[in-house]
Write a structure and sequence with these properties.
The structure holds two protein chains of two kinds. By secondary structure, chain A is mostly helical. Chain A is built from 18 helices and four strands. In chain A, the strands form two sheets. Chain A has a two-stranded antiparallel ribbon. In chain A, strands 3-4 form a two-stranded antiparallel sheet. In chain A, a hairpin with a 2-residue loop joins strand 3 and strand 4. Chain A is globular and about 75 Å long. By secondary structure, chain B is mainly alpha-helical. In chain B, 44% of the residues lie in helices and 9% in strands. Chain B contains six helices and five strands; from the N terminus they run αββαβαααββα. In chain B, the strands form two sheets. In chain B, strands 3-5-4 form a three-stranded antiparallel sheet. Chain B has a two-stranded antiparallel sheet with strand order 1-2. In chain B, helix 4 packs across helix 5. The longest helix of chain B has 30 residues. The mean pLDDT of chain B is 93. Classes of the chains: A mainly alpha, B mainly alpha. At the A-B interface, helix 1, helix 2, helix 3, helix 6 and helix 7 of A face helix 1, strand 2, helix 2, strand 3 and helix 6 of B.
Chain lengths: 572, 188
């Protein structure tokens, strides 16, 4: 077997080897049972005390959401002003300028919502201050926000009937102290020892072997790159993200980064099952999510290792696959693997230029973000999947003619309404955003913005349409990767994706938590022979079918206009 | 909401100290013990710094091994790929032009000897590596311009080829800068 294929098999194997036990640990830790990290309790106590938080106070689902939204609002306001005035703040060795208001609006939303779309380049658009105190800070806390919201949902199904769902600040703080921070230290040190820079020296200048004078951007990237993956954030220190040789120096770091972005989403599935004492359910959800991932991964690997048909016609050798926009040290196979995991999970970090990927690869990347629940982002992946479970429960209930139930609670009109709205919101904002862009480019090509609509697209034809579709999909899925040829730093894209981002984040968090909170407060009905069992493979497949049908109905026309059409022009 | 605003502000402040000061400083301290002392590993020729091991350089002179095409001209102050789509006609013209250039400088090559990485732009624009095939196809030219035996140059290529990780995972590759430095140092 070739070493490139072996490399991705090992990467995925290691992911499960770390992710599954991590999930069991998380279930115990969030339940307050004894775990080996309890030595951190004094640190947490100190944090609560300094913040004036009473960790014993129990909240219902509405109080949880109020706390979550309040602290997120604080970050939004603070970060917006920090970015605008970054040139006047300390720690700016490269003398970079402040961000324009529309760019700052987009950047701050995008980091608060765990997306990291990045319409700026790290080398020139941010200072060491904002890289640390805005971007890296938000990479930690936005991931912890998602995890804490998921734990609220877990809590709702642990006890039979309850309205007290634990304390938001505790879930949030523990996600950082017991999970994100310790793992980040480990990953950052692995990266540092493989060549990722850690020091605070600014740009360096040297004379190259041929005698050219070259400036090279550096900076303390290792800690940033670690949390960007563990927290499924994806925002890079440098413009080209983990394609940059300093952010991702070799195959070992590539494996490390690919593993670290998947372990928490995988762990959250098992944390759910073990937390609510239904291990079988965790395995069924894991199985279905893995099926979804494999159905995207295998064709992606085939499409990339097959090479570009247009270049094949020129008669050169594509021994390992297509190479445009890729790095030699990773090779097309590991690049294909990365492009799948970074899109099914809402990381959005890249180790190649997705814009230059084969048309079908682009389509698989889009589908991964359109479904957005195969593993999914930190905490929010399981929340998204939960929405589809509720819809599947409802449809199955109708099919067999019984009142739909989930884990002993009746699912009624109100819950199904919320679930349907959330499930349809995602395609709605993607398609409206794309339509708006296509309309603008057609009717206002010369609008006087920083980048004129006529020069938005880096590629003509169908691929150009894919660039706009990708940008909106990535924003709605809070993914953050892009077809980076798109000229997106102008008021249109900054504002439109800003709104898409915020809608695509908070409603899909509030919706599932609300459903869980409502269900948990209802009377518990003990399981009987007539109960629809939700931890069986049959029900798992039912959920899968719901996911596929919703995505197919919503997105097929748009995909046909973009990647599918491009594919057929390329092979003709 | 009022009830939550004060704890939100205070928690934000406390966490900033932990996550934005203590954490990065700890990593920066650990970085001091790495090969490049946290500032990036440098490559030297006769004791003089000529670049960074991880950052590719532009090589155009015929006595050097060439790296991959770069969308940013190997300007390491920034980074970037071409972002050209696979069906873009202008882009395909560029690739075809690069093949012709390579054939001009390596008249002994067949088209099928040229690997894709030598005619396509890397993702970062700073790729320090080329594939083994990409180095092998240049041996004859480099040897001729340096008036060296082909076997000596081939040996240098082998010495500067890094195999898969642990011999098992991922592709092999050649670091162009290190290879060229090795050849330059060989000469004297």
């Amino acid at each position: 077997m070739n070493t490139e294929l072996l490399g991705i098999i090992a990467t995925y194997g290691l992911t499960l080897l770390i992710g599954i036990p991590l999930g069991i640990y998380l279930a115990k830790m969030f339940a307050g049972e004894k775990v080996w990290t309890d030595f951190l309790k004094p640190l947490e106590k100190g944090i609560y005390k300094l913040s004036g938080i009473n960790p014993e106070e129990s909240m219902n689902w509405k109080q949880h959401m109020k706390a979550l939204l309040t602290i997120n609002l604080v970050w939004l306001v603070y970060g917006f002003f920090a970015l605008i005035y970054q040139d006047k703040l300390p720690l700016n060795p490269d003398g970079n300028l402040g961000q324009s208001p529309d760019l700052a609006f987009n950047s701050i939303i995008s980091f608060v919502v765990n997306c990291n779309l990045q319409h700026y380049s790290g080398e020139s658009g941010a200072t060491y201050f904002t890289q640390h105190f805005v971007f890296m800070f938000l990479q930690f806390v936005s991931a912890a926000t998602g995890i804490a919201a998921a734990v609220v949902l877990f809590k709702a199904f642990r006890d039979k009937t309850t309205t007290s769902l634990g304390n938001f600040w505790v879930f949030f703080t523990r996600s950082i102290t017991r999970l994100l921070l310790p793992l980040s230290v480990v990953v950052a040190i692995i990266l540092a020892f493989n060549g990722t820079t850690t020091s605070y020296e600014g740009k360096d200048k040297y004379i190259s072997l041929q005698g050219d004078t070259v400036n090279v951007s550096r900076g303390p990237a290792a800690g940033f790159v670690a949390i960007k993956h563990l927290g499924t954030n994806g925002g890079g220190w440098f413009g080209v993200n983990s394609t940059h040789p300093i952010e991702n120096p070799n195959y070992l770091t590539n494996m490390t980064e690919a593993i670290s972005q998947v372990i928490i989403p995988v762990a959250m599935i098992f944390a759910f099952g073990y937390f609510i004492r239904r291990k079988k359910m965790a395995w069924v959800i894991f199985g279905i999510m893995t099926l979804g991932m494999m159905l995207l991964l295998v064709p992606t690997v085939i499409s990339e290792t097959g090479g570009s048909p247009a270049i094949a016609k020129m008669g050169i050798s594509q021994a390992t696959g297509a190479m445009e926009g890729k790095e030699v040290r990773f090779g097309p196979t590991a690049t294909a693997y990365w492009s799948t995991v970074t899109t099914i999970i809402s990381t959005g970090s890249i180790n190649s230029m997705h814009d230059s990927a084969m048309p079908l690869t682009g389509m698989y990347q889009l589908i991964a973000m359109m479904m957005n629940c195969f593993y999914g982002g930190c905490g929010v992946g399981i929340l998204n999947y939960f929405i589809f479970i509720i819809i599947a429960v409802f449809i199955s209930g109708l099919m067999v003619g019984r009142t739909p139930e989930f884990l002993g609670h009746k699912v009624e009109a109100r819950e199904v309404k919320i679930a349907s709205i959330i499930a349809l919101l995602h395609p709605f904002i993607i398609l409206v955003g794309t339509a708006l862009a296509a309309y603008t480019i057609t009717y206002f090509p010369d609008a006087g913005w920083a980048v004129k609509p006529a020069s938005w697209l880096n590629n003509p034809g169908f691929h150009g349409f894919s660039e706009m579709l990708y940008e909106n999909t990535s924003a709605a899925a809070n993914n953050g990767s892009g077809f980076e040829g798109l000229g997106d730093n102008n008021i249109f894209w900054n504002v439109v994706t800003g709104f898409v981002l915020i809608l695509g984040r908070f409603l899909p968090i509030i919706g599932p938590v609300a459903i869980a909170g409502l269900l948990a407060s209802k009377k518990y009905i003990p399981e009987s022979a007539g109960t629809l069992k939700t931890d069986t493979l049959t029900f798992g497949i039912m959920t899968f079918v719901v996911i596929v049908i919703i995505a197919a109905l919503a997105f097929f026309p748009a995909l046909t206009l973009g990647p599918v059409a491009e594919y057929f022009t390329l092979i003709k | 909401m009022k009830k939550y605003i004060i704890p939100s502000l205070r928690l934000t402040g406390v966490l900033m100290v932990l996550l934005c000061v203590i954490y990065p400083l700890a990593i920066a301290y650990a970085g001091k013990f790495t090969p490049g002392e946290g500032s990036g590993e440098k490559v030297t020729k006769n004791g003089k710094v000529v670049g960074y091991a991880l950052i590719g350089q532009s090589f155009t002179k015929p006595e050097y091994f060439w790296g991959r095409p770069s969308a940013v001209g190997y300007n390491a102050a920034g980074s970037g790929g071409s972002n050209k789509g696979p069906s873009n006609a202008d882009y395909l013209k560029d690739v075809s032009g690069r093949i012709d250039t390579l054939l001009k400088y390596h008249p002994y090559l067949k088209k099928s000897d040229i690997p894709a990485d030598m005619v396509t732009a890397s993702g970062s624009g700073l790729d320090p590596n080329i594939s083994e095939a990409g180095a092998i196809m240049q041996i004859k030219r480099v040897a001729a311009y340096r008036k060296l035996d082909e076997r000596v140059v081939a040996e240098a290529v082998v010495k500067n080829t890094e195999g898969p990780l642990f011999g098992l995972f991922g592709p092999s590759r050649v670091n162009v800068l290190k290879l060229n430095v090795a050849l330059d140092e060989l000469k004297k």
